[in-house]
Amino acid sequence: MAQKPSKKFILGADVGGTNIKTVLVDGRGEILAAVKRPTLGRRGRDALIERLVLTLKDTVKKSGAAMRDVAGAGIGFASPLDPGKGMVFNPPNLPGWSNVPLRDILMQKLKMPVSLDNDANLVALGEHWKGAGRGARCLVCLTLGTGVGGGIVLEGRIWHGAGGIAGEIGHMTLVRNGRRCACGNKGCLEAYASAQGLVLRMQELLKKRKVGKGGKITPENIGKWARSGDKLANQAIKDTGVILGVAIASIANILNPDVVVLGGGVSNLGGYLFDPVREEVKKRAFPKAVEELKIVKAELGDSAGALGAARSLMLSLDG
Ligand SMILES: [Zn+2]
Predict the structure, then answer these.
(1) How far is the CA of 190 from the centre of ligand 1 (A)?
(2) Which CATH architecture does the domain made up of 9-124+303-318 adopt?
(3) CA 20 to ligand 1 centroid distance, Å
(4) Where are the domains of the chain?
(5) pLDDT at position 80, please?
(6) pLDDT of 224-260, one tens digit each?
(7) Which residues surround ligand 1, an ion (CB under 5 A)?
(8) Interval 166-194 mean pLDDT
């Protein structure tokens, strides 16, 4: 007879530059409690670690469970890091962090197993576990927000590659001497398919036609203008979709995924974005690579990263 597990619940946290989001889940991924708080990263490293620990404890309290019922905590962090060593290198949005052994620090403070991974990888794992990519053998996830985050899930596990960098799809070079990217390279997907990339495209089109625009140029407004029949807004989204399609066609030929999930603010543009993406992929990739491929919108929204973090801890306990 199988032994009844004594610790039934798992914590998951997604630590971003703006917010800490946490969940307490059961083994099937049902959320028992969730908390969202500002990160307040400017207060420094130690204050943030204390805040994270407190938020995790409060999440357990809110659910009515006890800390002794928790098997461990999975942590997602918006930073380059080494998941194997549990080390955070240098988060771009958090001052005072450099080579911090965050996993070991948290294990000591929480007195339970802790796993650590990059936030975009965990969004991919979350969408594979409970969201738009359930059951996929190979899932590729792109989060189109301030930047373009990427993650690859193969046979239910995050693919980290040799040095932990795998999945940085936002930094796939698409234009040899293209726009400067935040990473220092030129012509990365992120420079075109992020929120800022879409805004830049809209500005280029307006400049070319020598017309102005009432209202601030944001992805939300561009979507609103497109829906009310504005041709330039429609074109800006289409151009963004085409370049995303070019990138996904290459991914389709290389990895042959069954699901590509698109999340983040830019993915809210619906068919204006998804139609040109799908068309371009069909035009460029091998027909066999497209046959089984579904390109879908993310389903979990805000909680994807924290859910993926909980899942990642579960997988690490399974060995
Ligand atoms: Zn880049």
Answers:
(1) 6
(2) 2-Layer Sandwich (3.30)
(3) 25
(4) 9-124+303-318, 135-299
(5) 86
(6) 999 999 999 999 999 999 999 999 999 999 999 999 9
(7) 171, 181, 183, 185, 188
(8) 95
Ligand 1 centroid distance, CA of 182 (Å): 6
Asked whether the domain spanning 135-299 has the same topology as the one spanning 9-124+303-318, the reply is yes
pTM exceeds 0.85: yes
Q: Which long-range contacts (CB under 8 A, 24 or more apart) does 265-269 make?
A: 265/144, 265/145, 265/195, 265/219, 265/220, 266/144, 266/145, 266/193, 266/194, 266/195, 266/198, 266/219, 266/240, 267/144, 267/297, 267/298, 268/219, 268/220, 268/223, 269/219, 269/222, 269/223, 269/226, 269/237
CATH architecture classification, 135-299: 2-Layer Sandwich (3.30)
Q: Express each pLDDT in 75-94 by its tens digit.
A: 999 988 999 999 999 887 78
